[in-house]
Amino acid sequence: MAPPRLEPVLLAVTSAALVAGGGAWFNGDGDLADLLWSLGTLSAVLPAMGWVLAALRRGRAGVDLIAVLALGGTLAVHEFLAGALIASMLATGRTLETAARRRAYHDLRALLEHTPRSARRRTEAGVAAIPLADVAVGDLLVVGPGETVPVDGRVESAAAVLDESVLTGEPLHVGRARGESVRSGVVNAGGAFDLRATATEQDSTYAGIVRLARQAGAESAPVVRLADRYAAWFLPLSLAVAGTAWLVSGSAIRAVAVLVVATPCPLLLAAPVAVVSGLSRASRVGVVVRDGGALESLGRARTLLLDKTGTLTRGRPRVVDVIAAPGWQPAEVLRLAASLDQYSPHVLARAIVDAAHERKLTLSVPASVTEEPGVGVSGTVEGRRVRVGRFEMPGGGQSWARAVDNRALLDGAAVAWVCADGQVTGAVLLRDALRYDAHRTLRLLRAAGISRLVMLTGDRAEPAREVGAVLGLDEVRAGLGPADKVAAVRAERDHAVTVMVGDGVNDAPALAAADVGVAMGARGATASSEAADIVLTTDRVDRLADAVSIAVRARRIAVQSALGGMVLSLAAMGVAAAGLLPPAAGALLQEGIDVAVILNALRALRVDQTARPALTPDAEALVRRFAAEHVDLQEVLEAVRGAADRLTDGPGPRALAAVEEAYRLLTERLLPHEYAEEHQLYPALAPTLGGPEATATMSRAHVEIERLSRRIAAHLRLAHDAGGLAAGQLDDLRSCLYGLHTVLCLHFTQEEENYFSLAR
């Protein structure tokens, strides 16, 4: 490989010789012109020979050999202008390749440039700078404005404002509240904050990504595999045509003319430039690819194997419902549970606290907190003795409590019961829910050419089959260990190029066994990231669809550029062999072919507008607003379902009060939200989605929501006129409430998958 700065110098020398020789020829000094052109030719011979030898050392056929023969041939037959043109063409192509490579790896180099070297640790004696290797789990660190977060940790200050663009490619700043996780490598875009280290330097997210980036060299053989395959027949064919033209005509000039137009710049540069450009595009959307060979294989993949937990699902439990006992409200049940769980390290407790923060509930500081592993946590909250967990509790035989257990069994959810002063106040249901972007991702993957989607999971068969049915997967294999996953990957590889996606330590062997291993590196284990060929640095599975689309497009452009250039070269070779194209004219023609195919290859750097709809800034702001409102409106959904459940016990005052509270929340919070979506969000999304018809089904759901709400209002008017709910109203009113709850859940899910997942 030539030194990094050789290409622009060679371009300057060959261009100067070509122009100066042209000037001398126009002035009538042919001897000086030939001298200058021959010097330009000679200046390219040695570098070209160096490229040939470098290719041979790497075990490749060395398609640069045609360029060397063409340069030598022009000197031998005194076609100095043709030699100077070839030299200039070769230098131009190499310079274009270098520029494309430099642009392609700008984002990967940025990872290395942002690597922190030290951290500031807070102790009783003050704040002291320490080497990054000395940071231990549990250390309290200080991250100043503009500094890079040194290790993975949790925010210990009130809030932190972060720039995560180095990892995710997203330019918007992100706010993190106290207790939220922060990945190493992101930049503090706000004031100083305290960080509690949860990992050492070597185990942190950023260190694993940097290790991967250092291995992502595109100048090595994998990037040009495509060119090598085509060179296997193009090189001998070119030499055969040149030799035949010489033998038949007896003219060495014809042979040189054939070699001139056969100079394989399209083969040498177009395919690598397209693949390297694809690497650049991938890095900008938060996808780090180990090398061009991995990108090329991804572009040929037809089978995709996915882990479930952390890949198709969120990888952590999430509150899906809060059910209140008679006389309690779901928001108060959640607030009590979250206040106590603030002091618990349990994963379910963390989810309950996160849900309370999302709903903007004000939490109290608990006292006398104790925790019994596997059972739950107890303590005092606002003078009440509160317990949260899975234990036998008074009143557990009530009908509503039995219904909670039945629902948890049917939904595959965990239950955290909440008791206050010995009385059951409610229950929190938690489940590892599907990612919002999972459906869209799988649709995009199929559109990109993936014909078979298989889920491999160690989870039980029942929840695994439910996920597979919801997502429309071709096959689901449950209850698998690491060895079983490896065997499944190897079996699929016998039929097609196979991609495996996972995020845990147990996925690492399967990632290594696949043709292409993809790790969810944002939260995944270091082992899986290091075993993978591709790492998604942001916690979004839809980036996988982006990566596949980029790979397919880059490979298509690479093949198109290489084959198109060779077809044009072959046609020119036939004309040159017939003696109709002299070497100088052939060099000019080949120059035009080379520039055309390289510029075509550089199209891989551009964004493919068909891959993902691009929201306008205003539309994206609206999407974020309504997505946040969906979280707040979970209380309304819980109230609607809770009111329907209350009607099971009969038309008493409590049932009427529950229905009235649900209707109040509908009119004050939910219906205004739906009205704003209809008149603000949907019109803003219509241009991106292709017109108002794209949101027509969602608008129809709004009509049904309003119809059911009016029907509930009519029942309430009848109840007020009669002094209470009548037995004859129960069936229809319960049907309205359950129906409304179902419509709302489906409607929210559709909006989150189809619209909200478009936001960055």
Question: How would you portray this structure in words?
Answer:
The chain is built from 27 helices and 22 strands. The chain has 760 residues and is of the alpha+beta class. It folds into 5 domains: 6-105 and 217-278 and 552-605, no CATH class; 116-206, Calcium-transporting ATPase, cytoplasmic transduction domain A (Distorted Sandwich); 287-314 and 435-537, Rossmann fold (3-Layer(aba) Sandwich), CATH 3.40.50.1000; 318-431, Calcium-transporting ATPase, cytoplasmic domain N (3-Layer(aba) Sandwich); 617-758. Helix 8 (225-249) packs antiparallel against helix 10 (265-284) and helix 24 (634-646) runs antiparallel to helix 27 (727-754). The radius of gyration is 33 Å and the shape is elongated.
Q: Please tally the β strands and state the result.
A: 22
Q: Give the spatial strand order of the biggest sheet.
A: 10-22-21-20-11-18-19
Helix content: 55-70%
What form results from the Cα inertia axes?
elongated
Structural class: alpha+beta
Question: Quick check: average pLDDT?
Answer: 81
Radius of gyration from the alpha-carbon trace, in angstroms: 33 Å
Report how far apart the termini are: 40 Å
Q: How much of the residues is beta strand, in percent?
A: 5-15%
Oligomeric state, counting identical vs distinct chains: single chain
Q: Write down the domain tally.
A: 5
Q: How many helix segments?
A: 27
Largest sheet: 7 strands, mixed
| Spans where pLDDT lies below 50 across 5 or more residues | 215-224
Pfam families: E1-E2_ATPase, Hemerythrin, Hydrolase
Domain P-type ATPase A: 114-213
GO biological process, one term: copper ion transport
Transmembrane segments: 6-28, 35-54, 66-93, 230-249, 255-276
